[in-house]
Amino acid sequence: MAIVKPFRGVRPPKEYVAQVASKPYDVLNSEEARTEAAGNEKSLYHIIKPEIDFEPGTDEHDPKVYEKAVENFRKFQENGWLVQDSKPCYYIYAQTMDGRTQYGFVVAASVDDYMNGRIKKHELTRRDKEEDRMKHVRNNRANVEPVFFTFPDNDSLEQILKQETAKEPTYDFVADDGFGHTFWVIDSDETIAKISSLFADIPNMYIADGHHRSAAAALVGAEMAKNNPNHTGSEEYNYFLAVCFPASHLKVMDYNRVVKDLNGLTTDEFLRRLEDNFVVELKGSEIFKPGRLHEFSLYIDGKWYSLTAKPGTYNDADPIGVLDVTISSDLILRDILGITDLRSDKRIDFVGGLRGLGELKRRVDSGEMRMALALYPVTMQQIIDIADSGNIMPPKTTWFEPKLRSGIIIHKLDD
């Protein structure tokens, strides 16, 4: 069973929400955040990327930067740019991109559920990234940014989404990237109780995006429990901020690769090596996008090729072996190009599907990269199957868009 509860959200007054809301901390660097926040003292970047308030080049992990986050969080509340709701509520957060809208419940999710595996992961986390976000949560005593969960579709919860979103929203704005963000407050005691009960019947929830934030939030909650001699289990720190979307609402985008060299091979030699495991077809100069599982798109020397994995090169019965990212990592990147560690090898880079295949072409045509490989996106069901099997996705497999906007709602660990 998934344990969720309502909470007293900390959020901007309606007139400030578009100024406060920001992209997540991890999708842009310090200078990009400094540029986006320029002239806007209400931008959440002052809390989640507080190094922008120091001289350029300031180490974002400097203790004074974390202290600045705390100072700015306090300032936002004192100035009325962030205000806490008077009673625990659930919320609905909708995002619209390219005419498609996804609706999620904003909840306080259980630290215990994360620790005991009822909230399932599909990616490895890095301890240094966890520790950075743990310091941010620990110092602010708040989950300033939500994590992105999914759960198997549930007709009764879907009905509540339809019922509540037929009402006038609390927020409704389009961010500077063109994505729409709409938000409703659920303060009816009856509806709140029903949501809690319905989630309790859901066996598992799944982290779609935000593995490091999930780990950091849960680890700080567990740390606070351990350090409290009067711990009861009902404290607010036993929960963390999550937006939970029905699986059918979400769309996973492709996550593509660009490589700097051919490991000493000529183009012809490289193409011949590919023919060992793939049917290689020249598609010409027009951008070619993979249309199905086990089909890849290669761009090299101004030409696009389709690569279709031959039978026997993958295992459809294996939740990891069936993935195109596994096939390409093993049979192309490792066996031909000698790239074995996708996380650390400087010869490879990754391009999220939102940028389109034109970005792959641009990076190869510029001479920065030698070749590009586009993959067919994984499905939500594949992600759930892998999490259920206890396996971990290969690195750089999933790209979710749009990202959750930060600053629309915050969860305090002290209530």
Please tag this protein with its features.
24% strand; 415 residues; 9-stranded mixed β-sheet; single chain; 6-stranded antiparallel β-sheet; alpha+beta
Topology:
Blueprint: E1 4-5, E2 10-11, H1 17-20, H2 30-37, H3 45-48, H4 63-78, E3 83-84, E4 90-97, E5 100-110, H5 111-115, E6 119-120, H6 127-140, E7 142-143, E8 147-151, H7 155-165, E9 171-174, E10 180-186, H8 189-200, E11 205-209, H9 211-226, E12 239-246, E13 252-253, E14 255-259, H10 267-274, E15 278-284, E16 295-300, E17 303-309, H11 324-334, E18 348-352, H12 357-365, E19 371-374, H13 380-388, E20 399-400, E21 411-412
Parallel strand pairs: 6-11, 8-12
Antiparallel strand pairs: 1-5, 2-3, 4-5, 4-10, 5-12, 7-21, 8-11, 9-10, 13-20, 14-18, 14-19, 15-17, 16-17, 16-19
Helix pairs in contact: 4-6, 6-9
Written overview of the protein:
This protein is an alpha+beta fold and 415 residues long. The chain is 31% helix and 24% strand. The mean pLDDT is 95.
Instruction: Provide mean pLDDT, rounded.
Output: 95
Write down how many β-strands occur, each being a DSSP E stretch of 2 or more residues.
Answer: 21
Low-pLDDT ranges: none
Derived structural class: alpha+beta
Name the beta content range: 15-25%
Radius of gyration: 23 Å
Main pleated-sheet profile: 9 strands, mixed
The shape, in one word, is globular
N- to C-terminal distance: 24 Å
Percentage of residues in helical conformation: 25-40%
Number of helices: 13
Describe the structure concisely.
The protein has 415 residues and is of the alpha+beta class. It is built from 13 helices and 21 strands.
